[in-house]
Structures are given as structure tokens and as C-alpha cells.
Write a structure and sequence with these properties.
About 85% of the residues lie in helices and about 0% in strands. It contains six helices and no strands. InterPro entries: DUF1304.
């Protein structure tokens, strides 16, 4: 179950790096606007907020990747703590989105299911 948790966490981290790129680097691009359903004017008006939010996603991915690295390097308690913090925060943020924005539930599931499953698999493994 530990390997399952690490694979799921790695996939979740990758998704969050992509979200970072879309929000922080590509927010006003046609692709990002299509994905997030915003007009060019809306994207320009919210660009600073999206830039900041994207970095939250990147930092969650970094914490999760660090947890994976620590688990693989040997200090399991350190790695597990980082995985619980990183992937657990991803899942919690997705839950907030799911509950607060019914029209964005699909996005919440896309960004929250893998980290939730990773956390559950890690809990079982430990």
C-alpha cells in the first residue's frame, strides 16, 4: 500500500504543477481561459489572484514530492508527515472547492481524488 500511496501522491503532485502553470504562468492564454471558463477581461482582472493561487498549488506539490523523496530515502516518519501535509492539504482544498462551488465539482474531483486516495493508502500502510 505504501507504493500505491507514493504513486498516487506523485500523480497528484504532477496535477498540481500543471494547475500552477495554468494559473501562474498561462492564466490569460486561450487554453487556460478555456479550461477555467473565463473571458480575457475576467482573466486580466483576476490575474494577480490566480498567480498567487497557482503558487499555493506549486508549494503543495513540492511538499508532497519531498514526502515521496523522504519515504524513498529511508526516514519514513518524516516522509509520511510531509505526505500527510501535502496530499492532505490538496484533498482538503478540493473539498472546500467541492462544497463551496457546485459548478466546479468536476474540477474539485480532478484535483482531490488522487491525493485523498494517497492519504488513505498511506494510513493503511502505516
Amino acid at each position: 500500500m505504501l507504493i500505491v500511496s507514493l504513486v498516487l501522491a506523485a500523480l497528484a503532485a504532477l496535477i498540481h504543477v500543471v494547475i500552477f502553470a495554468l494559473e501562474s504562468l498561462m492564466w490569460t492564454s486561450a487554453r487556460a481561459r478555456r479550461i477555467f471558463g473565463t473571458s480575457l477581461d475576467e482573466a486580466r482582472a483576476t490575474q494577480q489572484l490566480a498567480f498567487n493561487q497557482g503558487f499555493y498549488n506549486l508549494f503543495l506539490a513540492i511538499v508532497t514530492a519531498a514526502g515521496i523523496a523522504f519515504v524513498l530515502a529511508g526516514p519514513l516518519p518524516v516522509g509520511a508527515a510531509l505526505l500527510f501535509a501535502g496530499a492532505g492539504s490538496m484533498a482538503a482544498a478540493a473539498l472546500v472547492l467541492f462544497l463551496s462551488a457546485p459548478d466546479k465539482r468536476g474540477a474539485a474531483l480532478k484535483q482531490g481524488v488522487l491525493p485523498l486516495l494517497s492519504v488513505l493508502a498511506l494510513a493503511i500502510a502505516l
